[in-house]
Design brief:
- The structure holds three protein chains of three kinds.
- By secondary structure, chain A is mainly alpha-helical.
- Chain A has a single domain, classed as ABC transporter involved in vitamin B12 uptake, BtuC.
- In chain A, the strands form two sheets. A two-stranded antiparallel ribbon of chain A has the order 1-2. A two-stranded antiparallel ribbon of chain A has the order 3-4.
- In chain A, a hairpin with a 2-residue loop joins strand 3 and strand 4.
- The radius of gyration of chain A is 22 Å and the shape is globular.
- The N and C termini of chain A lie far apart (about 55 Å).
- Chain B is α/β, with parallel strands linked by helices.
- Chain B folds into two domains: about 200 residues, Rossmann fold (3-Layer(aba) Sandwich), CATH 3.40.50.2300; about 160 residues, 3-Layer(aba) Sandwich (Rossmann fold), CATH 3.40.50.
- Chain B is built from 14 helices and 15 strands.
- Chain B is globular, with a radius of gyration of 23 Å.
- The relative contact order of chain B is 0.14.
- About 0% of the residues of chain B have low confidence.
- The model of chain C has no long low-confidence stretch (mean pLDDT about 85).
- In chain C, helix 1 runs antiparallel to helix 8, helix 1 runs antiparallel to helix 10 and helix 5 packs across helix 6.
- By secondary structure, chain C is mainly alpha-helical.
- A two-stranded antiparallel ribbon of chain C has the order 1-2.
- The chains are: A mainly alpha, B alpha/beta, C mainly alpha.
- Chains in contact: A-B, A-C, B-C.
- At the A-B interface, helix 1, helix 2, helix 5, helix 11 and helix 13 of A face helix 1, strand 3, helix 3 and helix 4 of B.
Chain lengths: ~350, ~425, ~290
């Protein structure tokens, strides 16, 4: 094994080991408020990255679907007395079905229309949860919901492993899906719906399926979220949280599923420690939104592939630097420079369909 | 997925650095080192201005406990204040409270600002029985009235208590028998309306119609159209400038009924705005925990101290500064009483707090068995000031109001949590 | 029965006048999208910016009309800056433009909050258009003069935009560009200058709407989100890129909101989204929109 290949293998081993050992090394706050929260946010961002990446559907309804699952968990647990795990699973199922419903409404919309429609659906759900007391508990929402591992405060490691396992399962499943025939048909529909239709694929139904899967993954995040907080209120599905999911996905790197988790970790760290950052005399806690908005804007303008893209570019640069150092005036060696990630800064990430050529 | 290697590298790097950073984070509090107080108020969003004023109130209280070096100190222990800001949503308030308690290891948490956040913090307090949680200005009734937490203390009064004296005043002195209600559709107005109705309904008044306007909606035209004509007054529980909106629209549509105000309805913004409805504002009764025109010496001293320390602050301390001041002062007085002893799960400190009774800029404050404040409330009426401008003059002081507004815990008016439909006396 | 009729007519008038405001707000949004396929998610922030600029100027000079002019021009200039500085470089990348405008809206909203605080600001329109007008068939016998003025303004704005689009040369270019951008460019028209004009016009309309709306309903933080959403809904229902569609969409949504508020107050807000979802399920391009 050459040196170049040993390093990635090492990284591949280091990451799982670090993630498993993590709760044994850090205080409870870091297990729960930082890591578990980052994982939960990462999962909902993952659902957005999946839909955008494989389906070309940038959906702003993911926070709402996650919130829906959280609300359903609360209702099933508190009003119907179901135990935690069945309640959670049914809630995920409901989120999947509602995702399919959203997909049905939005199946014929594409690109920007789709984005705006999902935003409007999300806000509509917010107002429903806010105004309705019979089902959704209105302005106050629900409290006192415990997950199958009990109160996270008392069993932080158990809860963390639950989140980690769910995230890993979701991530690997979606990766597998990307290479499976169904996933390939999704990507075909993303790239050229007309051709797929000509080949006999039911395009609308596939879009519904994509949204349903997006709802499923978002639902997982919502259920874990309410088990983490113990409560749910409309503030968790408002416009700010809806946009936060987009920010996390974009900052992490919209084309890369792992970016969802990197972006989420970044977001959680900034949100938690912003108050400690004081620049030019004003605390970032008060101007947190400007800070986040600015990071987001900078990423979109200069690093459209997010932090992952930056890391890849850095790796290329470092690789070149090392290669320069090692070069000696011997026979010319054709050294393959690792390809940068194939998204050039001038084009869209490969997630939006281009306009169909004819406009009838 | 070509860059998943880079992704995994980055991920590993972040995980490892997170571990390293966290290993150095969080010191444990000791029994002889500094006392850490965590302050939680809303700093993001539209509540930012009240949030800033809340921290001003805290600092005013802390300034009364300075040592020879000018540092805050009680019983020989230095006091450190760690501030965190929320955005008025319970989820974020909860996260910030967790950060203060678990990462910064504060001994006492003072906050939050808004009602819904208060309910979430109360639930969290139950899971951390060995730390003391003192309210900021959150004014939801159920924070202490139903399922209270044994370690949550509220030295400020709730939104219903703020209305004490007004219902009676409206019925007896102003002669209003039938009143319609216009308020925003969420918990704080529910509490305010309930506070008004407790006394008003008990005295025999009737509230035939309530309009709950969805949050964020500024267009009251259809509400105005729907107000019944056979009412004596309208109780308006809207924030200052929304009230101006409503009054302008009501006036433009030919409405002539007098107004009764909630605690934030007839503030300086409204009184200072010129417009055709201004004349009709004279005689508007309202109520709240403070009154700008209070002439009692303790209040005037408080205002003077506020103005001296914060020349860039508001023209007069808000009820948020007032509330946070009282809560912080309570904490400091109790600390003094137990000589800074926070050992044993802070038990002695909590006991001292629950028995505490002291004089504030607005009179005496003490706690009931749910650890909620019993304090004075002010009924005001808009009158013409000496220069022809409008001011809120104090017309009555409800003395030592408890959470049941004197009705007693078993009153049917208090049988259910406040909501759109409860209490009702149509 | 008479009461029902008076109520109904009054609420109907309320809906009409609210629709007027929504039309003015949404017209800029739909124009920008129709030609440039740019979803300006900062539209709500531009509304808010216009309102604050207008208030500052009106308060300083005591002249409301100056405030209107300042709000419209100021935001139009901001639009030019945004377009030239950022969006023009991303021509054709719809998603990226949407994301950039989202980022800008977050920053704008927060900076405006830092500058103007959480207070609500009131405008004082000149007496000519303030106060009430007596109208026999409405509740109370009188109706807000300003709201009637808004109705008139909406008609004038709609008419002016129609004239620009259908009777001027630049209007020809705009309509041609909506149909086929590449052909227009091939014919030698400076398409980027047309784009700039449209973006500035759309932004200016947002700023104008800001002052108009704020005079009726005051301005405070959070209004940006509200008007962005209502613009989205109005334009989705009416059809993107269509001025007539914006008018129809505004009518439907304005009336639905007011009737909802009167007869079904708790869920009036959700009603709007239900209508939108319904229209989209049946006609994804909106009522007068062109199929994508």
């Amino acid at each position: 094994m050459t040196r170049a290949r040993k390093v990635p293998a090492l990284a591949a081993l280091l990451v799982p080991v670090a993630l498993v050992l993590y709760p044994l090394l850090v205080p409870r706050f870091w297990i729960l408020s930082i890591a578990s929260q980052a994982i939960i946010l990462g999962i909902v961002a993952l659902s957005l990255v999946f839909m955008a990446g494989q389906g070309g559907m940038v959906s702003l309804a993911q926070a709402a679907l996650a919130g829906l699952a959280a609300y359903m968990t609360a209702i099933l647990t508190l009003r119907l007395g179901l135990p935690a795990l069945p309640a959670g699973l049914i809630a995920v199922l409901i989120a999947t079905l509602v995702g399919a419903l959203f997909g049905a409404i939005a199946s014929r919309s594409q690109g920007i229309y789709f984005l705006m429609l999902t935003l409007a659906l999300a806000v509509g759900f917010f107002y429903l949860a806010l105004q309705n007391y019979d089902l959704f508990g209105g302005h106050i929402g629900f409290a006192g919901v415990l997950g199958p591992t009990g109160s996270p405060r008392e069993n932080p490691a158990a809860f963390y492993y639950l989140c980690l396992a769910t995230a890993v399962a979701a991530y690997l499943s979606l990766r597998y899906l990307a290479r499976a025939p169904l996933g390939l048909s999704f990507q075909g529909i993303r790239d050229n719906p007309r051709r797929m239709w000509a080949l006999g694929y039911w395009v609308s139904l596939h879009r519904v399926a994509i949204f349903a899967i997006g709802g499923l993954v978002a639902g997982l995040s919502g259920v874990l979220g309410i088990w983490y907080r113990g409560s749910i209120s409309p503030g968790t599905v408002d416009l700010t949280r809806t946009i936060d999911v987009l920010i996390i996905a974009v900052v992490g790197g919209l084309g890369h599923p792992i970016g969802a988790f990197v972006g989420a970790l970044f977001f959680v760290l900034v949100q938690t420690f912003a108050s400690s950052v004081v620049v030019l005399g004003f605390s970032f806690d008060e101007r947190f939104n400007t800070l986040i908005g600015l990071s987001f804007l900078l990423v979109v303008l200069f690093a459209p592939d997010g932090l992952i893209g930056l890391a890849a570019r850095a790796r290329v640069l470092i690789g070149r630097r090392l290669a320069d150092r090692r070069r000696d005036p011997g026979p010319p060696v054709v050294r393959p420079v690792p390809e940068p990630v194939p998204v050039d800064a001038g084009a869209d990430p490969p997630s939006t369909p281009t306009q169909p050529l004819d406009r009838s | 997925m070509k860059s998943s290697r880079a992704g995994r590298r980055l991920f590993a790097l972040s995980v490892v650095s997170a571990i390293l950073v966290s290993a150095c984070g969080g010191s444990t509090g000791s029994q002889s080192g500094p006392i850490k107080i965590g302050g939680l108020a809303t700093l993001a969003g539209p509540f930012a201005v009240p949030g800033q004023d809340s921290f001003r109130g805290m600092e005013l209280a802390l300034d009364e406990f300075k040592n020879a070096n000018g540092k805050w100190e009680v019983a020989g222990r230095e006091i450190q204040l760690i501030k965190e800001g929320s955005d008025a949503t319970p989820a974020v308030a909860l996260e910030k409270a967790k950060k203060l308690i678990e990462q910064d290891n504060v001994d006492i948490l003072i906050g939050p600002l808004s009602g819904d956040e208060g309910l979430a913090i109360k639930d969290y307090a139950k899971t951390v029985p060995d730390k003391t949680f003192i309210n900021g200005s959150s004014a939801a009734q159920d924070t202490t009235f139903r399922n209270p937490a044994p370690n949550f203390f509220r030295f400020s009064t709730d939104g219903a208590q703020w209305m004490a004296g007004l219902g009676k005043y409206a019925y007896e002195k102003k002669g209003f028998k039938r009143v319609a209600v216009v308020a925003e559709d969420y918990s704080f107005p529910y509490t305010q309306v309930a506070g008004f109705m407790y006394e008003f309904c008990a005295a025999g008044g009737r509230v035939p119609k309530k309009f709950w306007v969805p949050l964020g909606n500024k267009d009251y035209s259809s509400v105005v159209s729907g107000i019944p004509t056979d009412i004596d007054a309208i109780y308006v529980a809207l924030g200052g400038a929304d009230a101006v909106n409503f009054l302008t629209q009501y006036n433009d549509a030919g409405g002539r009924a007098p107004i009764i105000g909630g605690s934030i309805t007839v503030d300086q913004t409204v009184l200072g705005t010129t417009g055709p409805f201004q004349e009709r504002l004279v005689g508007t009764a309202a109520a709240g925990p403070i009154a700008d025109t209070n002439t009692e010496k303790p209040w005037l001293d408080f205002v003077a101290a506020y103005k001296a320390k914060f020349p860039d602050g508001l023209p007069s301390p808000s009820l948020f500064a007032h509330a946070y001041y009282i809560e912080t002062k309570a904490a400091l007085l109790a600390l003094k009483e137990v000589n800074g002893d926070l050992s044993g799960g802070e038990k002695k400190f909590m006991e001292a707090l629950s028995k505490l009774s002291f004089d504030t800029p607005t009179g005496k404050v003490s706690l009931d068995e749910n650890r909620n404040a019993i304090a004075n409330e002010y009924v005001t009426e808009v009158q013409k000031g000496p220069e022809g401008n409008l001011v809120n003059n104090v017309v009555a002081v409800a003395q030592q109001v408890d959470q049941t507004l004197g009705l007693g815990k078993d009153s049917p008016l208090l049988a259910q949590p406040v909501s759109r439909d409860f209490p009702a006396c149509p | 029965m008479a009461k029902f009729a008076t109520d109904f007519l009054t609420v109907g008038l309320n809906g009409l006048t609210l629709a007027a405001l929504y039309f003015i707000v949404a017209s800029g949004f739909t124009l920008i999208f129709g030609l440039m396929r740019t979803t300006n998610m900062a539209h709500g922030s531009l509304y808010l910016l216009g309102a604050y600029i207008g208030w500052t100027v009106a308060d300083a000079t005591g002249n409301w009309w100056l405030g209107v002019a300042a709000g419209s021009l100021g935001v139009g200039l901001a639009g030019v800056a945004i377009h030239v500085g950022m969006l023009a470089r991303m021509a054709g990348q719809d998603l990226r433009q949407a994301l950039v405008t989202i980022g800008l809206s977050i920053i704008f909203a927060d900076l405006l909050l830092a500058r103007y605080g959480g207070l609500t600001y009131q405008f004082r329109p000149p007496d000519l258009i303030a106060g009430s007008t007596s109208i026999p068939f409405v509740v109370g016998g009188a109706y807000s003069t300003y709201r009637l003025f808004l109705l008139a303004v909406a008609v004038v704005v709609g008419g002016a935009l129609w004239l620009i689009l259908n009777r001027t040369r630049i209007g020809v270019y705009i309509r041609a560009g909506i149909d086929d951008r590449d052909m227009l460019s091939a014919l030698g028209v400076n398409v980027s200058r047309v784009f700039l004009f449209v973006f500035a016009l759309g932004a200016g309309l947002a700023g104008f709407a800001g002052v108009m709306g704020a005079t009726a309903l005051s301005v405070s933080p959070g209004e940006d989100g509200r008007y962005l959403l209502s613009s989205l809904v109005v334009v989705i229902v009416g059809g993107m890129g269509s001025l007539g569609g914006a008018a129809i969409g505004a009518l439907i949504i304005g009336l639905a909101e007011q009737f909802g508020l009167f007869y079904l107050p708790t869920y009036s807000v959700v009603l709007t989204f239900v209508i939108m979802a319904g229209v989209l399920a049946v006609r994804p391009q909106g009522i007068l929109g062109r199929p994508a």
